[in-house]
Specification:
about 35% helix, globular
Length: about 400
Amino acid sequence: MAENGQHVNGTASSNLAIPDGTTLLQPSPQAPAISADEIALYDRQIRLWGVKAQEKLRSANILLVGMKAIANEIAKNLVLAGIGSLTILDDQLVTEDDLGSQFFISDLHIGLNRAAAAIPQVRTLNPRVALHADTESVLLKPPGFYAMFDMIIATDLDLASLSTINAACRFVNKPFYAAGSHGFYGFIFADLISHDYVIEREKSNVPTQLKAETVTRTVVASNTKIENGKQIEMVTKRELYSPINLANTSPLQPEQISSWRRKMQVPPLLTCLRALWEFQNIAGRSIPTGSKADLERFTTLATEKHKELQLPTETLRSEFLRSFLQNVGSEIAPVTAFLGGQLAQDVINVLGQREQPIQNFLLFDSDDFKGPVYALHPIFPPLDEPIL
C-alpha cells in the first residue's frame, strides 16, 4: 500500500512535474487505434455509441475522489465501459460501516486505506484499464493537480470541499461532477463549464436555426449525412454551466415556479440539501445530532431555504424533515446503484459528446423513485437573436 499520498499503480508511467513542485503521474501517450480484440470485447456498447465514442472513452483519464458506495458504482460502470485510466483518491481508512454497502472491500481490509484496498478488486473487472490509488487528502491538492485528468468526480463530501475542488477544476478548465447519498435520498451535480454535444435526428423540412434554446443551451451548428438512404441531421448544441457554490444559491428557473402546480412538484429534497450544507458550514459538523438544538437549527435553516426558493410551505412537511435527518450520512445499496449508474452514463455521454448531459442538479428520492433535474444558475438574460 502507498503512503504519504503516493500512487499505487497497475501500469508503468512516467512522472510530471508542475510549477508548484508537486510530482504527478504522467498521462499515457495517445493510445493507438482500437484493436479488433477490443471491438469484440466492447461490441454491445460500440453498437450503442459507435467506435469513435469508444476510442474517446478508452483514452480518458478520470479522477474519482472518495471511495464509498456511490464511488464503487461509478468505478464499476466506468471500468467495465473501458475507460483508459482511473485514479481513485481517498485518504480515509476502511471501517466496519463501509462493509454494508461497498462491494470492493471485505472485513480483511478494515484499517487499510479505502482507495488502495479497492484497487485489486476493481482491476478484476477489466485488466485493460490503468488503475492508480492516491492516499493523500484531496484538500491538499493544488489546482495544477487536476490538469492531467479529463474528468473529475467527487463523491460524499461537504459543500466547502466540493466548492474547492470545483474551483480548481475551473481554473484548469476541466469538467467536474459531484454526487452524494443520504439513505433514501441523493443528488448528482454537473459543472462541465462549456460543453458541446451532437444530437442526431432525421432531417425535417423546417431548417434548424442557430440560436439559444434556453438560458444555458444554444444550437451552434447543423450538418447532414446520408444513412440507410435517409437524410440525418447532426445538430451541435452547447451547454453552459455554473459552479456548485453559485448553483447552491441560485433560484429555480421562472418556468419551474410559474404556477402553483409546478411549485408543488419541486421536491423538498432540494431545500433539505441546501439546509444541510448550510448547517455543516455553521456547525462545523457533517451530520446533525439528535439534540434539540441541532433539530431546531436545521428546521430553521430548511424553512429559510424553502422561502428563498419561493416554494409553498405545505410541501416542507415535518414528516419529510424527520425522514431526511434520519437518513443523513447513511448508504443504501439500491440508491447508490441508481446514482452511480446515472452519473457514469452521463460521463460516458459527455466523453463521447453524445446526448443532452445533466444540467445541472439531479435529485433522487427513492420514496417515489423520481430523479428530476433542475437547472440552477444565476439569472441570465434570454438570448433571442440567431448566431451569426
